[in-house]
Amino acid sequence: QRSFEHMSLPSPPASKMFAPPDRPANQHWAEQGPPVLIGFDFDCTLTVRHFFKVFSWGYLSGNMRGHPHCTAFAEWCKKRKIGTRLTSQPYGMWQDNALGMALEGFVKANGQEAYKACIREIFFGGEARIAALASFLEELRNAGLKSGGGRPNDMAIVTAGRSATVLRALWAAPELAKFFPPPMVWDVSQCRHNVDGVMATKALILREISPHAKRIILVDDSLESDEPASWVLDSAGVEMFRGRLPYEASGLNRLNFGQLWTHAIGGGSPTTVWPSHELDGEDGEDEADEDDDDDEVIEDNEGGDGDIDPLKSDPEDSDGPPTPRGVRDLLKRQEAKSKAKGKAKASQDEPMEGVEDDADGDAGYNEIISDDDLEPDDESRPMP
Which one of 21, 78, 133, 151 counts the least CB within 10 Å of its CB? Predict the structure, then answer.
């Protein structure tokens, strides 16, 4: 056995033993944080239609009446002879990711270019709106430099859907993706705090993203139906944008971007010129008419024997290809989970004797339910 006792290394000077590495010149940014962190919801805030619900409620099972926003998607597919139902289960780990499965299947069936065009036109509102939104986000970011803090404002996305699928949607619009790199895109499943409500969860995540931000603003169309507890907002130091942003409407547009600028920046005004959009109505409602009598049909993307009218046909009654077994299994699991949650919620909401229960029921999010329950006007279904 060899001995190394005779070998000794020189000890470093005491003053250097625990000296931290030299700090970069901008280290104070990390300590002080950005002037403002603006956190955006994705669906119907940055998008003009509900990305999650169209694909996971509609395309996954072929039910184009699963949500009102499916109508525009179905019409877009009609013009390009693209199927409106997932016809084969994509390979990969999609078993519990309904939206990921739907997107992967759409790309496999129709190609990346069709996917990009769909995301840009149907969900981001077209080239003019994408350009306006990118310009406005650039102005919001650079306003931090002009405020005297020496650092641009930060932006993030926190969704009730899936963060990876949001990144996949942003990939189709690189003009917007540059404002939201992967570290700034989160979903509510990634929160380590268990609180009641999606808005409250998002507020806490935003403070996790930027612990030292001087101000944090959450912009979300779901605020009107999910007011976060005041103690959560106080604890996280988060402000809610309470401008004109109706639930599941056209998101940021020419009618509300000035209000957001005033809330976040204060003085001055943005120079971005927003285009008019067909969805910018008085109520922010979609242009879809559920009673449309259009009788056009669309061939399935695999050229099956049966023609499908995506706006009228029931997926189970059509002659088109059947829903893949893996998708049916996912729908059944999610339906069972949804029903179990509903029973548990009902038992929790039973009022105690002598106590009046005036709280509204709160459905879970990120669920897929059966076609029988998917009626556009049914507000009791889960909504991310």
Answer: 21
342-350 own/partner pairs: CB under 8 Å, 24+ apart: none
How do beta strands 238-240 and 215-219 pair? Answer: parallel
Q: For 179-244, give the DSSP string.
A: TS-GGGEEEGGG-SS--SSHHHHHHHHHHHH-TT-SEEEEE-GGGGG-PPPHHHHHHHTEEEP-SS
The backbone torsions φ and ψ at residue 159, rounded to the nearest 5 degrees and listed phi first, read: -115, 155
CA 101 – CA 134 distance, rounded (Å):
29
Q: Which residues contact 161 (CB under 8 A, 6 or more apart)?
A: 42, 43, 51, 52, 99, 187, 366, 384
296-328 pLDDT, tens per residue?
433 344 433 334 455 554 444 444 444 555 555
Q: How confident is the model at residue 258 (pLDDT cuts 50, 70, 90)?
A: very high
Q: How many residues does the chain have?
A: 384
pTM of the model: 0.69
